[in-house]
Write a structure and sequence with these properties.
The protein has helices at 3-23, 25-36, 40-56, 58-68, 70-90, 94-122, 128-139, 141-145, 148-157, 159-180, 197-206, 209-241, 245-273, 275-295, 299-315, 319-326, 332-358, 371-393, 396-408. It has 409 residues and is an all-alpha fold.
Length: 409
C-alpha cells in the first residue's frame, strides 16, 4: 500500500472515532438525564466539555505538531481519550461525567489537526482541500454510528458498555498510528521555522487580520451544526415533536449523511470555484434552514432541513484550506489549529448557551420544554451566523491586497 494512502486511512479511522464521541450524547441524553439527574443546563455543560477541552488544546497542540509531528502527538493524546472513555462508562455523578467528557475532548484534539499537518507534507497543496474533505467526510460517518446504531446499541447493551468498548478501539488506533505513520515522506525537507521561533510563529498567525475575518465564520457555522448534531437536535425532536428514540436516531442519521456529503464534496468544489464563494453560499443557506426550523417545526421540516444544516456546517471545513493558503509553510500546525480553536470553541459555547436559553422557559409536567424555548435558541444560531457571514464577506478586499503584495514581493 502506498505510504500516503496508509497515512490517509490511519487518520481517517481515528477521526471516525473522534466524530462518534462528539455526537454520541444526542441519542443517550434521556438516559444520562434519568440516571444522573441532569437538567438541560447540566446536560449542555457536560456535552459541551468535549469542545471546551478540545478547544483549550488547540494552541499548545499547534506548537507541538510543528515541533514533534503528528506521528507522536496524536497517539499520545489518544491515550488520554481512552482513559476518559473508560471513566465516562463508570461515571456515577455530574462531576465524574464532566471530567470524563473533558478527557475525551483532550484525547480527540490531535486527530484532525494532526491529519492536516500530515497531508501538508504527503500531498500537493492543490490537493489539500480535496484530501482533507475526503478524510473528514469518511471519518464523519462516526456521527452515523452515533445515530440509529447508537440507539440500538444503547437499548441492547447500555451506554456504559458502548463507551467501554470505545476505549479499546481508541487504544488500538493510538498504537497503529505510532507504529505505521511517518511525519513526512523520505527526503522531505522540513519547512523553515518562522522568524522568531515559537513566539514568532504565534505572532505570524494570530496577528494576521485575515485570520480574524475567517475564524468567526467557523465559530458560527461549525458551532451551530455541532451544537445541534452533538446534542440539541435530539431533545428538540423529543420535546417539540414527540418523536421516539428510533425516529430521532433516523433524523440524526439524515443530518449525519448531510454532513458527510458536505465534507466529501465541499473540498472538491472549493478547489474549483474558490473557498469564499462556497462558504458565502452555504452559510446563507444555513441561516435560512435554522430560521425555518425555529419558525415552522414539524417532522417533515426536521427531516428535510437537518441534512441541510449538516451539509452547510460541514462545508466550513474548507476554511482550513483558506487559512493554509494565506500562511507560511512553517506555521501550518499553528494556523489550522487557530481556525479549529474557534470551530470547536463555538461548539462548546453554543451548545452550552443553547441549553441556557431553553432553560429560561418553563417545562411541562413531563420535563418537556415548549416550542418557543427551542425557537429562541435556534434564532440565536441563525442571527450569529448571519452576522459572521457579513464580516467574512467584508474581508475580500483585504485578502486581494494580501495576494497582490505576495505576488509583487
Amino acid at each position: 500500500m502506498p505510504k500516503h494512502l496508509q497515512v490517509f486511512l490511519l487518520f481517517t479511522a481515528a477521526y471516525f472515532l473522534s466524530y462518534f464521541y462528539r455526537s454520541a450524547n444526542a441519542v443517550i441524553a434521556p438516559d444520562l438525564s434519568a440516571e444522573l439527574s441532569l437538567g438541560p443546563a447540566d446536560l449542555g455543560w457536560v456535552t459541551s466539555l468535549f469542545y471546551l477541552s478540545f478547544a483549550a488544546m488547540q494552541i499548545p497542540l499547534g506548537a507541538a505538531l510543528d515541533r514533534f509531528g503528528a506521528r507522536w502527538v496524536t497517539p499520545t493524546l489518544l491515550l488520554v481519550g481512552a482513559l476518559g472513555s473508560l471513566l465516562f462508562a463508570a461515571a456515577d455523578s455530574l462531576a465524574t461525567l464532566s471530567v470524563a467528557r473533558a478527557l475525551i475532548g483532550v484525547g480527540m484534539a490531535g486527530v484532525l489537526m494532526g491529519a492536516m499537518q500530515m497531508f501538508s507534507r504527503w500531498y500537493r497543496p492543490q490537493r489539500f482541500a480535496t484530501v482533507t474533505g475526503w478524510l473528514v467526510g469518511i471519518g464523519s460517518c462516526g456521527a452515523l454510528l452515533a445515530a440509529t446504531p447508537m440507539a440500538w446499541l444503547n437499548i441492547q447493551f447500555g451506554w456504559r458498555a458502548v463507551f467501554a468498548g470505545g476505549a479499546a478501539a481508541v487504544l488500538v488506533m493510538a498504537a497503529l498510528i505510532a507504529l505505521l505513520a511517518r511525519n513526512a515522506p523520505p527526503g522531505h525537507s522540513p519547512p523553515p521555522p518562522p522568524t522568531g521561533g515559537l513566539l514568532g510563529g504565534f505572532r505570524t498567525v494570530w496577528a494576521s487580520r485575515l485570520l480574524w475575518r475567517i475564524v468567526p465564520m467557523n465559530f458560527w457555522m461549525s458551532g451551530s451544526n455541532l451544537a445541534l448534531q452533538g446534542l440539541w437536535a435530539g431533545p428538540f425532536m423529543y420535546d417539540v415533536l414527540g418523536m421516539g428514540d428510533v425516529a430521532v436516531g433516523n433524523a440524526l442519521l439524515g443530518m449525519g449523511v448531510g454532513a458527510t456529503a458536505g465534507f466529501v464534496t465541499s473540498g472538491m468544489i472549493a478547489d474549483r470555484i474558490g473557498v469564499r464563494p462556497l462558504v458565502t453560499l452555504t452559510s446563507a443557506l444555513q441561516v435560512l434552514a435554522l430560521l425555518l426550523l425555529a419558525l415552522l417545526p414539524s417532522v417533515w421540516v426536521v427531516t428535510l432541513l437537518l441534512p441541510v444544516v449538516g451539509y452547510c456546517g460541514a462545508s466550513a471545513m474548507v476554511l482550513f484550506a483558506h487559512v493554509r493558503r494565506l500562511m507560511p509553510d512553517g506555521v501550518t500546525g499553528t494556523a489550522v489549529t487557530a481556525v479549529n480553536l474557534f470551530g470547536i470553541g463555538g461548539s462548546f459555547v453554543l451548545q452550552w448557551c443553547f441549553g441556557m436559553v431553553v432553560e429560561q422557559f418553563l417545562a411541562d409536567a413531563y420535563g418537556r420544554y415548549p416550542m418557543m424555548a427551542y425557537s429562541a435558541a435556534l434564532g440565536l444560531l441563525a442571527l450569529g451566523t448571519a452576522l459572521a457571514l457579513m464580516w467574512y464577506v467584508g474581508g475580500r478586499r483585504a485578502e486581494l491586497r494580501h495576494s497582490a503584495s505576495q505576488v509583487s514581493g
